[in-house]
Amino acid sequence: MIIVVMGVSGSGKSTVGSLLADELDWPFYDADDFHNEANRNKMSQGIPLTDDDRSTWLASLRELIQNNINSETSIVLACSALKESYRAILKVHERVRFVYLKGSYAEIESRLKNRTGHFMPVKLLKSQFETLEEPRDALTVALTHSPEEIIQIIYKGLAL
Fold first, then answer.
1. Which of 21, 38, 134, 155 has the greatest number of beta carbons closer than 10 A?
2. pLDDT by 10s per residue, the chain, length 160
3. Hey, CA dihedral for 32, 97, 6, 24, is it positive or negative?
4. d(CA 122, CA 8)
5. Is 156 exposed, middle or buried (0-12, 13-18, 19+ CB in 10 A)?
6. Measured over all CA atoms, what is the biggest interatomic distance in the chain, rounded to whole angstroms?
7. Dihedral of the alpha carbons of 6, 7, 8, 9, in degrees to the nearest 10
8. Half-sphere exposure (CA, 13 Å, Cβ side) for 31?
């Protein structure tokens, strides 16, 4: 199984994804690590990425997923996957499952203001919410739960 933990920046994708991967003893990947330098620079300057900017990034993630499907290796991937078209690129097999970490603008803005050491500034949150197309085929988990509770909801929701 490939579990893609998705949501806007600051929703806890990396935290939940890495905890889940540790629990399952699966490899964890953070999609942020697959951005090229130009994308990172653009975001750190507060400039939202375009679909064109994201195309090579999404192609890299698709290749990662496909390689793990081919080798029958289960992984957890933290990835914003904000648009349906992006998720369609990533869903190369029925073994790819999405978990959507859903929170309000105010909840996530508060988290971002307290986060340090990340290239994504708070001022890009508005563009993230504008780009977000909430998934209809994902396990949706409210951010009002603790990371540990979210892990348990994922276990039950995906029958792990």
1. 21
2. 999 999 998 899 999 999 999 999 999 999 999 999 999 888 878 888 899 999 999 999 999 999 999 999 999 999 999 999 999 999 999 999 999 999 999 888 887 776 555 555 566 788 889 999 999 999 999 999 999 999 999 999 999 8
3. negative
4. 11
5. exposed
6. 41
7. -50
8. 31
User: Tokens 């078209």 label which residue?
Assistant: 85
Domains identified in the chain and CATH numbers: 2-157 (3.40.50.300)
Are 54 and 86 in contact by the 8 Å Cβ rule? The answer is yes
One-letter identity of residue 7:
G
Is 77 within 8 Å of 29 (Cβ atoms)? Answer: yes
Instruction: Read off the tokens for 91.
Output: 């869903």
Would you say how long the chain is, in residues? 160
